[in-house]
Amino acid sequence: MNKRSSWLWSAATAALLSACGGGGDTTTSAGPYAVNAALGHLLVTGGSWAMNGTANGQAFTLTMAFAPAGAGPFPVNGVMSAQSLETLTVVSAGQSNSDTETIYFDAASHAIVGLQAVGTCSTATANTPLPATAVVGASGAFFTEADLDGCAGNSLVLGSGANTWSVVSDTGIALLCWNLAAQDAAGTPNGTESICIEVHADGTLGSRARFSFIAGAVTITARNF
Questions:
Q1: pLDDT tens figures, 59-75
Q2: Which of 22, 93, 101, 136 is buried most deeply by CB count within 10 Å?
Q3: Are 209 and 51 in contact (CB under 8 A)?
């Protein structure tokens, strides 16, 4: 399990969640949607999305929040970067569990510099800018990461991740998705994650969102529409 997957697993330990999903497509505008601007809104402006699910008859809520933070150096290489704090909170059976990941990125281009959470870091090894606009059904590379066992310059690589973007339609709602496929140091797949947020034509973000995380026998899904 890579660093980001480990962070998500830590945040979700309030329950082993296997949640229900939604229905099929209705009518969605094909776009185009200003996806690069939407990424900027997510990282620079932020927002919060509360979602619901059930697991073995037990309801839970999952809140995903992004909040801007002041600029600072990425611990692995000292590169000064803008920062966004992504917090994932799971509440189930009266128990709440929350963890935060720091996303380091270039303020002008939104290129990812690295990620930091639960005492470890991931370094971006390649970035592909999102296009200015994209239509429903479009997808592409976002960035690749090397997942480390710490946050020092000499930390060991434990795995890697391929991050991609996509624009999808779900029950008539256009969503911009940030997807991750993780693998260990041997190249064995060990987890996937997808966060999808409603996107408007001008790149502003809406109130609807969905989330999925799969690692081994554990499947976590949540949505608010």
A1: 899 999 999 999 999 99
A2: 101
A3: yes
Angstrom distance (rounded) from CA 168 to CA 184: 28
Q: Two tokens at 134? A: 């994209």
Q: Cβ neighbours of residue 101 under 8 Å, at least 6 residues apart?
A: 4, 7, 85, 86, 87, 88, 115, 116, 117
Query: What residues does 48 pair with on adjacent strands?
Result: 65
In residues, how long is the chain? 225
Q: Which residues of the chain have pLDDT under 50?
A: 1-3, 13-25
pTM to 2 decimal places:
0.88
**How far apart are the C-alpha atoms of 54 and 105, rounded to whole Å?**
34
CA distance 153 to 57: 46
Provide the residue type at 78 as one letter.
G
Classify residue 59 as left (phi > 0), alpha (psi -120 to 50) or beta.
beta
pLDDT for residue 199: 98
3-state secondary structure of 40: helix
